[in-house]
Specification:
The protein contains eleven helices and twelve strands. It has a seven-stranded parallel beta sheet with strand order 3-2-1-4-6-7-11, with helices on both faces. The protein has a three-stranded mixed beta sheet with strand order 5-9-12. The longest helix has about 30 residues, at about 5-35. About 45% of the residues are buried. β1 (about 40-45), α2 (about 50-60) and β2 (about 65-70) form a beta-alpha-beta unit. It is of the alpha/beta class. The protein has one domain: 3-Layer(aba) Sandwich (Rossmann fold), CATH 3.40.50.720.
Length: about 350
């Protein structure tokens, strides 16, 4: 066989293997989603980004989904977008940082759809900037959103789940909750708290038939940077964050994240990471924390210098520059349009 034919044969074989793997993956996902048909699902942070993509996927599989978000207009737009796809999804304005709001959300769903089978805590906030530019209020906002928000909704659904001896709770944390990340200190503080909260609750409620799944993704292309908060040199901070978030070598697609999370819900997995980089960072940090700190120190030196001004605070949409948006952030732009960002 000539070299050209051998190369062509290898290429065809590789293509066949890839096609077969993709087909098996699709079939597996359909089965995972089908196992959640008619289940009552609540997704906080469900009006945009990953939460919106999860809502669409689970509703397409026949789950009875309610999305919640702080901004009523964004929640309604998300509900209308899903309705245009033929998906019936309920939408409730809710700030999970407020205990009364969280309890009212769960009460609304139970009255309208029945006991909650699956709770997904995806509401979040990202503050990007040097520690010298972060205020105490930035840290409070992160902890209230990422720790107390999920705690409020968990405490609202757990009595019913315990009485039925069945239920699934999914807390969307982050690799930033396993490895302290430069220029994301408030975010890491909140996500570390959520990881600890998830693991502690998972251990205690398992004998009541309840699964708590902690999901720790790395960077994901959800289209969220325009809604993140940037401190200090906001244009430079927005640029590095958005370019990294859009890099397919560093980040996972929303679709990949959704498939992984739905599988974790269906199989009641207690802990999930998504990207290879996140898994590697977790292992290296556990085995060699001093080495991890030295590596992260090198990363920090490459990031924008501090402005030493805690008052400078802008959303990503106010922090655009010639570098971002640009062709370097094209994938983020696509995700932004796809995920109601």
């Amino acid at each position: 066989m000539s070299r050209t034919r051998r190369i062509a044969s290898f290429a065809l074989g590789a293509a066949a293997v890839a096609a077969g793997t993709a087909l098996l993956s699709r079939r597996s996902h359909v089965a995972d989603r089908e196992s959640l048909r008619d289940r009552v699902v609540v997704i906080t942070g469900g009006s945009r980004g990953l939460g919106f993509a999860l809502a669409e996927d689970l509703a397409r599989g026949g789950a009875r989904v309610t999305i919640a978000g702080r901004d009523a207009a964004t929640v309604e737009r998300a509900r209308e977008l899903l309705a245009a796809e033929g998906l019936q999804v309920d939408g409730v304005p809710c700030d999970v940082r407020n205990q009364a709001d969280a309890e009212a959300l769960i009460a609304h769903v139970e009255a309208r759809s029945g006991p909650v089978d699956v709770l997904v805590n995806d509401a979040g906030v990202i503050e990007v900037g040097s520690v010298w530019d972060q205020s105490l209020d930035d840290f409070r906002e992160s902890v209230e959103t990422h720790v107390f928000g999920p705690l409020h909704t968990m405490r609202a659904v757990l009595p019913s789940m315990r009485a039925r001896r069945d239920g699934r709770i999914v807390n969307i944390a982050s690799i930033g909750g396993l490895v302290g990340t430069p220029h994301l200190a408030p975010y890491s503080a909140g996500k570390f708290g959520l990881v600890g909260l998830s693991q502690a609750y998972a251990a205690e409620v398992a004998h009541d038939g309840i699964t708590v799944t902690c999901v720790c993704p790395g960077l994901m292309r959800t289209g969220s940077p325009d809604h993140a908060i940037f401190k200090g040199r906001t244009r430079a901070e927005y640029a590095w964050f958005t370019i990294s978030d859009s890099n397919p070598l560093l980040s996972a697609s929303t679709r990949h994240a959704v498939v992984t999370i739905v599988h974790a819900i269906a199989k009641r997995k207690p802990f999930v990471t998504i990207t290879p980089l996140a898994r590697a960072a977790q292992i290296v940090n556990a085995l060699a924390p001093a080495t991890t700190t030295r590596l992260l120190s090198g990363v920090a030196r490459m990031l924008p210098p501090p402005l030493d001004d805690e008052t400078v605070r802008r959303e990503g949409a106010q922090s655009h520059s010639p570098l971002a948006p640009s062709p370097l952030t094209a994938l983020d732009g696509l995700a932004k349009r796809r995920n109601n960002e």
